[in-house]
């Protein structure tokens, strides 16, 4: 059997860990930073943070096209370099307007980089281990999600310095750029089609329903990842537990990747996807129900709150860990070989649309109604996504699948 863990694959995974570490070390603390440093209101915080995702979304389609049309190394190095440099902009932003501009523009290289790096991982994987390798590739995201928020919150707790966090993100991103610069890429077919541009060059039309379905799950995680710290403190009375929550969520992601590896090797993509989204729905529902359930059991309310709060993290992680690689593989399997970059950008575009809507809508609902209402919206949207998959998306994929070895 072809070797999965080759040197280039490990380097690409390490670089991916670096870029997501730089991203996640700031993510849970930025709402607090905007609130404390610039006195921003809830809806303004949502607006500022959603700009990053919206810009990433705008860059995704073009990045998929450029990744397929130009040398992979050149595109990757430019994207990673730009992504790293923008962290210096946070240090220089002295007003809310300047911070908003920097944060919004930063989404561009992030959107392009995640497409370029994940496509690079596909390139350096042996074709016989590609489905399995894509699943394990996500472990680098999960590890960064487990470690980075915890480290960021710990550092802020003891130093009260956002400036130090911005420096850490900058240094880690630069280290990732250096690692990626040593990757040796195989020769690949460059798309030189000079025909009239069409939408399918930027978004994989054959996989459109997979993308629509992914929006619902991106929405849910957008609200959770950006408003967890404030919701936990103001509604659930949990202080200092955000880092632990993200760590447990990531442990769930890691366990699901390890446990689901066999199903991926067997090509059981729709099974993994369905199982994962149901588990995630249970996790989101448990999370929002905990304050209500605890009020009925006043004697053990704090214990029940802790069990439900941290238990939901593990369930959401388990579910997303099954669902994400399955959807990524399904999208790749409805694409032609010379559309790998476009396929990757399509699934990430959909996730970004959901994340952006979650951040923006979550902030508006929190300001107009409450944080609880925002998280109830998460449960409803997630349930609609699950229903969409079983009623339509599963059969949509099976009809368009180009790989007889997966189902």
Query: Mean pLDDT, as a whole number?
Result: 84
Structural class: mainly alpha
What pattern of helices and strands is seen along the backbone?
HHHHHHHHHHHHH
Q: What does the radius of gyration come to?
A: 20 Å
- Measured distance between first and last alpha carbons: 22 Å
Shape designation: globular
Number of helices: 13
Strand content: under 5%
Task: Write up what this structure looks like.
By secondary structure, the chain is mainly alpha-helical. It contains 13 helices and no strands. The model has no long low-confidence stretch (mean pLDDT 84). It is 80% helix and 0% strand.
In brief:
With 407 residues, this protein is an all-alpha fold. It contains 13 helices and no strands.
Can you tag this structure with a few keywords?
mainly alpha; 407 residues; globular
Furnish the topology, listing elements before pairings:
Layout: H1 7-24, H2 30-38, H3 42-69, H4 72-92, H5 96-124, H6 130-159, H7 162-180, H8 208-236, H9 242-265, H10 269-296, H11 301-333, H12 340-368, H13 371-400
